[in-house]
Request: fold
Amino acid sequence: MQGIAHHSLRFAHPLSCHFRRNIMLFARPVQSCSALFENCIWKTNSFITSFRSRLCVLAMAQDAEVLTDKEQRLLKNLYTGLIEGQRSCLAEAITLVESTHQRKRRMAQVLLQMVLSHHRKQEQLNHGKPLAFRVGLSGPPGAGKSTFIECFGKMLTEEGHKVAVLAVDPSSCTSGGSLLGDKTRMAELSRDMNAYIRPSPTRGTLGGVTRTTNEAILLTEGGGYNIVLVETVGVGQSEFAVADMVDMFILLLPPAGGVSCRGIKRGIVEMADLVVVTKADGDLLIPARRIQTEYVSALKLLRKRSSTWKPQVMRISAKNGEGISDLWGKMVQFQSSMLTSGELIARRRSQQRVWMWNLIQENVLLHFKNHPAVKNQIPILEEKVRIGMLSPGLAADTLLKSFSDRS
Ligand SMILES: Nc1nc2c(ncn2[C@@H]2O[C@H](COP(=O)(O)OP(=O)(O)O)[C@@H](O)[C@H]2O)c(=O)[nH]1
Ligand SMILES: [Mg+2]
Reply:
């Protein structure tokens, strides 16, 4: 608060000065009215532009200023280590963005800002092309996602790529998740020096987990990982959240084996740039072919997400490695066609906007729920709505009115 008051004081002076000068101009009788008006508008607009950019620079500097010397030193070391590709620094940086501690959150934001400007410079050197390929992998539990990532990740690192794997598992917020299983399933990849595997934090809401995943993607890219795989289970809204963070979204479906494909939400199939039927080996080969045919027909009826790319259905087996390199070929084809058409950059830009609004939504809601004007009323009204004594609309209006009256 103190910082803000200080800056507004500093800005109050030039602003009032400028308006005073413009008012003086109006008072002079020699100039024509319209010339005077244009002059005034031009000066005010250019003032606002410079004011905005000064404010941005100040806001960034202000963020860094509030950090203690020790914190700034720590951030500098973390940033340098991260950019140099030290895994321990990447791990520490992700822990920092996952922290809910306010001071650490602030440090995390400064670090992210540093990584972002490093990114921008690197991308300029790369003729504006993104440095990394972000791929989302979703599918029901047991579809074979982790087994596929182990096999696929190893193939990529052997080809010289640096692969980061981030897992988003909101079910782990309540149940502890399947991390243990995943660790044993990705045993070889987790020992690979060119791969980095990071499970999602086991605490927090989906909103929190997706925020930190978005930030973790930036950090892994800052650490030099050029392929980022984001794995998510097809539960709740997590797959939609992941589809909004990546360049390419792949849906993995098991041929049978106890997991029903009928349960796959239509909406998520529409988000898929590629559908992959897994476990196409042994006894499962025939059902895998059948599912592939079913989805080929189903995709024809669905709304297209891209104007240039037609989603396709492929078959793979992580057990015997079949179809994995063909799949990679298809992914590369997707990336280059989306880059050429400009859709990939457009997708990233609109994702940035979605990300900002998600953050605002999350924070506004938190602010609302904790506001003294409504905090105590919420459980009482919630209960009244639950037992049918009060309509949800009226309860919401009451809470919103108390909030806006006291804000
Ligand atoms: N036959 C066969 N089984 C597989 C294949 N990929 C995974 N599985 C098995 O499917 C089960 C679930 O795999 P997992 O990778 O943990 O699925 P996730 O929950 O989607 O990550 C495990 O028992 C795997 O051994 C495959 O290509 N062929
Ligand atoms: Mg898994």
